[in-house]
Amino acid sequence: MYQDLKNKVAVVTGGSKGIGNAIVKRFGQEQMSVVINYNGDQESAQKAAVDVKVSGGKAVVVKADVATEEGNAAILKAALDNFGDLDIWVNNAGMEIKKPTHEVSLADWNKVISVNQTGVFLGSKIAINYFKSHHKPGNIINMSSVHEKIPWPTFASYASAKGGVKLFTETIAMEYAKEGIRVNAIGPGAINTPINAKKFADKQQYDQTVSMVPMNRIGKPEEVAAGAAWLASSESSYVTGTTLFIDGGMTLYPAFMDGKG
Ligand code: NAD
């Protein structure tokens, strides 16, 4: 628990499922006021709101597409209408499309870039405008991936978007540092969420993924949420422009394990 997070207002995009859902619940345990954005799954978003309230926090759900300006405006409006302020904005929403690159349609490419990269730009922009116009320090957390660093054949759009999120995070962290706005990214490795459900249901694919993790296991969404809570809190007050990898060592070139190579 981080005492300074109590009563802070946080937006979490894509908060109905997976990592976003775990962050929402963790923020609830920190007794924060949480705006839970969802795009499709209203029932899970409402369930997450109940979880936050049971933990002693406050919550509101808002349906919005993060790839649009109107969507991000609706999310900010929900924060201001319900809680009167904004302290932390977590750009978590994301999606991926697996296809050999020579077969990727322009529509699929644009979809992945618009949610994973443009969505992060739009969310950050609206949050920064709010922080600046209210002369308050703010905190932005962008959900990147180990694939901001590790190439991923058949996921070129996703890896491109996450690589973009890395440099976008670093750039705006520098651009707004003097105004007290901190911007960081989180780079999860293989985490047990709906995005991986089909893959992890296949034992061969599950074992193959585990073999790429030095810690020899798949991560839990709560382990990513713990990093988000730390980055949101003042315990990380001198941290900006960095990616916190939460990946069981996946970015450490596991092919070299046991002195191979
Ligand atoms: P998930 O599929 O379980 O959840 C993604 C969430 O984003 C869902 O709630 C979905 O509705 C929402 N979303 C998608 N498009 C949206 C849009 N246009 N507007 C609003 N919401 C939208 O996936 P997850 O694993 O929880 O992923 C969360 C984030 O973590 C993503 O950015 C993902 O790229 C990243 N990530 C996940 C892993 C992993 O192993 N699970 C690894 C690295 C990075």
Automatic annotation (TrEMBL):
* UniProt entry keywords in alphabetical sequence: Oxidoreductase
Q: Which InterPro entries match?
A: NAD(P)-bd_dom_sf (IPR036291), Sc_DH/Rdtase_CS (IPR020904), SDR_fam (IPR002347)
Q: Name one GO molecular function term.
A: oxidoreductase activity
Which biological process, per GO, is one annotated for this protein?
A: bile acid metabolic process
Q: Does the keyword Oxidoreductase apply?
A: yes
Q: Does the keyword Cytoplasm apply?
A: no
Query: Pfam families in the record, alphabetically?
Result: adh_short_C2
Q: Which domain of life is it from?
A: Bacteria
Entry's family note:
Belongs to the short-chain dehydrogenases/reductases (SDR) family.
**Name this protein carries in UniProt:** Glucose-1-dehydrogenase
